[in-house]
Amino acid sequence: MFHILNVRQQVLSLLSAVAFGVSVAGFVGLPATATAQNRTLPDFTDLVEQVGPSVVNIRTIDKPSAQPTAQNQPIDPQDEEMQELFRRFFGMPPPPNPNAPRQQRPNRPQQPQPEDQPRGVGSGFILTADGFIMTNAHVVDGAQQVIVTLTDKREFVARIIGIDKRTDVAVVKIEASGLPPVKLGDPNRLKVGEWVMAIGSPFGLENTVTAGIVSAKGRDTGDYLPFIQTDVAINPGNSGGPLINMRGEVVGINSQIYSRSGGFMGISFAIPIDEAANVSNQLRANGRVQRGRLGVGIGEVSKDVAESLGMSKPQGAFVSSVEAGSPAEKAGIEAGDIILKFDGKTIEKSSDLPRTVGNTKPGTQSKLTFLRRGATRDISITVGEFEPEKVAAAKPAAAEKPPESAAVVQLLGLTVSDLSDAQKKESKMRAGVRVDAVAEPALKAGIREGDIITQIANIEVIDTKSFAQLMAKLDKSKSVSVLLRRGEWSQYTVIRPK
Predict the structure, then answer these.
(1) Does the annotation count 481 as an active-site position?
(2) Quick check: 218 and 236 in contact, CB under 8 A?
């Protein structure tokens, strides 16, 4: 009780000191030098005047169907923000408004005339003086008509130049000249804690300015984009608007928020402008984006796997599968390899690989560095062009009696047998052993009956004989890495012996 009262007395004294203009640095126990820095809050007025005219409001319109229904009746323009909110964050149309006025029934039957349906609102910013505008793909994708409104209230019907859903970037064009383009900055120069500003049309409120700081960089929320995380207030309608640094440069496109309610909760994500600019350049040149591909399925390299393979730290992209006929297969990449570098760029985590390869022009000869069975190797690979990958369902293994020769290994808790010719043909494996039974500690490591073991401790397993020889040489006090094949995919696991 005394402590609480004492704190209350200190707070009252502090407020009194502030009210009478007394310095409080020494009073609260802070060093006097703390006030010497004279850090002040930023003034965004100059930035708003500089960048504001380059930010546009984007409205999209859908054409109604021939037979109007309750779902496509004209919607009050004031409810456009609700359309955007429910479609973007809930993936559904908004519920009917119980307070909406009922239409008067005419004296005689009359076919209602279909009208254009307001679809949503968003934001964008001017790239060039002749009318190229960048926004989010989800803002304009599927729209029948796109209307761009400038800050001087002029309206234009825009033409969609190109949409890239994978990066959520789109470019539209209006027929105008003498427009004020934005200045693009370098998002790599951003520092966590740096002030940034956003301009957009949240809930249709045009030219709304919000500000905050960079919360984090390189957030992995997508295959091709390391997002910029901020605490700038972003809401439905801000999508496609610019994220601006204190130099008046656009460093990102406000694209996503983390929310449990559909509204802002303090976490926003922006697409780095260097990534978006690369996409927009391709959209303007070709109307689509060409991406490089290798044709591999990848996964993370865990700490346990890295240690078992003798790696100094977990890094790289683990190759879990190789697509038949892909550039990776032609270059000799195998399931179980760990890709460490692409064109000299270090692959720190698996998500770095599709981004790096995706930004490479198809047909390029690139150098690939990977780890296989404890040895680092370099190969040359011709990058292919990305296509939607087809997920092939694994065929169920044919029921057949395993070969008579079986090796029971108590150390790892595995019973394995040689692959039959039919199993080799079905799994497209030239070597390995099939797991017929699993006990501890292999069971704890996630190994299942029917898995095919292809490597033990970075050494290829040919058959049960080679498997038994490897077991005899293992250090029984250390964990051992196992590369196994399950269906169409390969994966590493680590077995800790009893």
Answers:
(1) no
(2) no
The residue that leads in pLDDT, 124 or 299, is 124
Which one is catalytic: 54, 123, 138, 490?
Answer: 138
Number of H helices, E strands in the chain: 10, 28
pTM of the shown model: 0.61
351: tokens are 């998500």
Q: Which of 168, 337, 352, 451 is catalytic?
A: 168
> Contact, 472 vs 493, CB < 8 A?
no
* Residues found in the chain: 498
239 is annotated as an active-site residue: yes
Q: Which long-range contacts (CB under 8 A, 24 or more apart) does 362-368 make?
A: 362/290, 362/291, 362/292, 362/293, 362/386, 364/292, 366/342, 367/341, 367/342, 367/343, 368/331, 368/333, 368/339, 368/341, 368/342
Closest among 227, 237, 284, 17 to 136, alpha carbons compared? 237
- Please, what are the domains in the chain? 43-64+81-88+115-289 (2.40.10.120), 293-385 (2.30.42.10), 406-495 (2.30.42.10)
d(CA 463, CA 417): 8
pLDDT per residue over 334-364, tens digit each? 988 999 999 989 998 888 888 889 888 899 9
**Joined tokens for residue 191:** 């520092």
Which of 239, 255, 268, 350 is the catalytic position? 239
Does the CA dihedral 67-72-76-78 come out positive or negative? negative
How far lies 28's CA from each of 2, 13, 64, in Å?
A: 19, 10, 66
164 is catalytic: no
> What does each C-alpha distance from 354 to 45, 340, 388, 489 come to in angstroms?
40, 13, 13, 18
